[in-house]
């Protein structure tokens, strides 16, 4: 069946292509399921206890020890027989216990948090059905907290943001759209999964807002289904080098034992009597290193426990040996090499015309109001202090996210909301703590102001604004934040044309930071102080703004990642980053961690997932030089990269 690129089609064309209908009869559902398949994923099945036991007893080493056991019993060498039995039982039981525990852990992970129901519109009303019964052409409703049941082409949205970290590795939720996307100039490439903003993908979760869309792929046709099917069918049961070496050693020692047996028979002048058989058999039994087999198994078991303490599950003990032969490590970025959480990174104070006054960096613990600033905030004066206070006010007021102290007087903070919003609110806490001698607490900053409506973040405007009124000051205020390219053109003083500001923004972006602009507008033209800004046109509210500055946040690398990457390179292991992030972000993090050298990267060091897929499709995995960084990388691209290695 031809795979349509639904993200390039309009909702109407998608509806017609998948055979959508307003009459969702049982007959239609059956036809759709027969045509497009069911919404079930192929899962890699774990091994049962019986299979684990059989695999640990039916092997060459156990067979040889079994033969030795038989000989010992025939010769009535009961001590030797007991030793061999203990070796077989100890060796196998240790492996069985460790591997079965790992299988149970893997099984628990497979069934962790999986959604079982989906909300679809059938027969003109919304109803919940089992996930497996969703078919192509169904209209699915999504709301905050839902897990997307299939790959969906979005048709209606309301502030919809979806966390796609499970698919792309990107920590920031993606703001969704409904319009058809523009195809890339290179016809051999497709738009990266992380850039398909009008699609919702199976097993991703709704972080904010709501939406509705048409199911276009189910089961193994979904993005997550493709990778599940590939992994389920890609397993191998090849013996490791250590296992092969041990088997060869055992065969060799058996051969040596037979040679010695022949020599003994020769010494007895080929008179094969009970005494000759006793000496020959005893030599064969004695020459086999039963203790070495147990020693290797015990060593492996200890290593498995150490790996478990490091939160790594080892399904087969023999797999540990392969760690010593690793030449390349392919790692995700978010949550693996980085903390997986957005943190405040930089603050740029600016004049209204866009001239940067100060670039401030907060250093200190995460989720804390304390920070060591690159310049003490209390040392700022005049216009700098006024601008900093305005930035603090904008950060504190232009947000619907709550972040509070874990207890009264505590420096630790906790909050709930989108990662970016939490990082911005943490920045506000750090600023207020640095200015506590002059402004008091963050609550004191909010206290004079009463809310007068909100324009939520919109993927088209790329801004968010909130209206406020202060009875104490007798005036109104609108605080605005959003993408610099959306905020700056709406500001008085033409900050967009300031070359110095543009240079600062480019520098921040090159470091992999997410940059937002902050602005405000005083004395909004409301009919009365109690009016809501939602009664006005958004364009009339978000204009003639006063530009305040820039706030940058990022997902910082783990300190342990920097050390681990350095150790890998010292050991001759190449570390490669496969991430759903944008190339600039991936490159900046890779340089900071040490995956690629600082400075301009080579053309082959950083490429995108669609580019990798196109090259592999043309060369059949025959790339001369594999990249160190693959950005905008889908799960399927990650598998292709591993297979190419």
Automatic annotation (TrEMBL):
SMART domains, sorted: Cation_ATPase_N (SM00831)
Domain Cation-transporting P-type ATPase N-terminal per the UniProt entry, residue ranges: 5-77
GO MF, one annotated term: ATP binding
GO cellular component: membrane
InterPro entries in UniProt: ATPase_P-typ_cation-transptr_N, ATPase_P-typ_cyto_dom_N, ATPase_P-typ_P_site, ATPase_P-typ_TM_dom_sf, ATPase_P-typ_transduc_dom_A_sf, ATPase_P-type_domA, HAD-like_sf, HAD_sf
Subcellular location: Membrane
Listed transmembrane segments: 49-72, 78-97, 249-270, 276-298
Top-level taxon: Eukaryota
Alphabetic keyword roster: ATP-binding, Membrane, Nucleotide-binding, Transmembrane, Transmembrane helix
Keyword Hydrolase included in the entry's annotation: no
Topology of this chain in the membrane: Multi-pass membrane protein
Pfam families: Cation_ATPase, Cation_ATPase_N, E1-E2_ATPase
Renumbered residue ranges of the record's region Disordered: 352-371
Protein name: Calcium motive P-type atpase
Organism field: Tetraselmis sp. GSL018
């Amino acid at each position: 069946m031809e795979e349509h690129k639904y993200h390039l089609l309009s909702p109407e064309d998608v509806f017609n292509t998948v055979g959508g209908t307003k009459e969702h009869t049982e007959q239609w559902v059956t036809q759709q399921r027969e045509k497009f398949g069911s919404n079930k994923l192929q899962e890699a099945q774990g091994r049962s206890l019986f299979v684990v036991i059989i695999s640990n007893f039916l092997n060459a080493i156990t067979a040889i020890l079994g033969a030795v056991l038989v000989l010992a019993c025939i010769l009535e060498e009961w001590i030797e027989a007991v030793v061999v039995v203990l070796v077989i039982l100890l060796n196998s039981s240790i492996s069985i216990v460790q591997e079965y525990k790992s299988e149970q852990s893997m099984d628990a992970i497979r069934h962790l948090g999986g959604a079982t129901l989906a909300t679809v519109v059938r027969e003109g009303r919304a109803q919940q059905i089992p996930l497996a019964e969703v078919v192509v052409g169904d209209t699915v409703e999504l709301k905050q907290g839902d897990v997307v049941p299939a790959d969906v082409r979005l048709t209606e949205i309301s502030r919809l943001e979806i966390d796609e970290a499970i698919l792309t590795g990107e920590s920031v939720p993606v703001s969704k759209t409904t319009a058809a996307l523009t195809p890339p100039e290179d016809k051999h490439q497709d738009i990266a999964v992380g850039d398909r903003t009008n699609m919702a993908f199976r097993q991703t979760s709704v972080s904010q807002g709501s939406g509705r869309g048409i199911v276009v792929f189910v089961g193994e046709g979904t993005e997550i289904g493709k990778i599940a099917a590939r992994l389920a069918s890609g397993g191998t049961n090849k013996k490791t080098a250590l296992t092969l070496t041990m088997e060869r050693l055992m065969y060799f020692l058996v051969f040596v034992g037979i040679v010695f047996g022949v020599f003994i028979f020769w010494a007895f002048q080929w008179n094969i009597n009970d005494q000759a058989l006793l000496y020959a058999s005893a030599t064969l039994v004695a020459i086999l290193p039963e203790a070495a087999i147990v020693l290797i198994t015990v060593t492996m078991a200890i290593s498995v426990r150490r790996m478990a303490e490091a939160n790594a599950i080892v399904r087969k003990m023999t797999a540990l040996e392969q760690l010593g032969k690793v030449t390349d490590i392919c790692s995700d970025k978010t949550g693996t090499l980085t903390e997986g959480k957005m943190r405040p990174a930089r603050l740029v104070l600016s004049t209204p015309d866009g001239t940067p006054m100060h670039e401030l960096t907060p250093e200190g613990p995460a989720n804390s109001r304390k920070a060591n600033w690159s310049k003490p905030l209390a040392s700022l004066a005049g216009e700098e202090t006024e601008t900093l206070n305005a930035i603090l006010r904008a950060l504190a007021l232009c947000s619907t996210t709550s972040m509070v102290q874990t207890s009264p007087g505590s420096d630790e903070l906790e909050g709930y909301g989108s990662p970016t919003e939490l990082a911005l609110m943490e920045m506000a806490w750090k600023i207020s703590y640095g200015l506590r001698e002059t402004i008091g607490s963050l609550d004191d900053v909010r206290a004079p102001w009463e809310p007068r409506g909100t324009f939520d973040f919109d993927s088209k405007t790329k801004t968010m604004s909130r209206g406020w009124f202060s009875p104490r000051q007798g005036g109104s205020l609108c605080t605005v934040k959003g993408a610099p390219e959306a905020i700056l053109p709406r500001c008085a003083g033409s900050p967009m044309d300031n070359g110095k500001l543009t240079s600062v923004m480019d520098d921040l972006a090159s470091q992999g930071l997410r940059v937002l602009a902050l602005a405000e507008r005083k004395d909004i033209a409301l009919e009365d102080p109690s009016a809501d800004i939602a009664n006005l046109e958004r364009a009339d509210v978000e204009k003639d703004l006063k530009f305040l500055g820039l706030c940058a946040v990022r997902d910082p690398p783990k300190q342990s990642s920097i050390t681990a990457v350095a150790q890998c390179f010292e050991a001759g292991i190449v570390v490669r980053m496969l991430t759903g992030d944008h190339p600039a972000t991936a490159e900046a993090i890779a340089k900071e961690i040490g995956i690629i050298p600082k400075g301009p990267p080579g053309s082959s060091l950083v490429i995108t997932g669609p580019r990798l897929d196109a090259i592999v499709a043309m060369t059949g995995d025959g790339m001369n030089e594999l990249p160190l960084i693959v950005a905008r990388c889908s799960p399927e691209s990650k598998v292709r990269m591993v297979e190419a290695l």
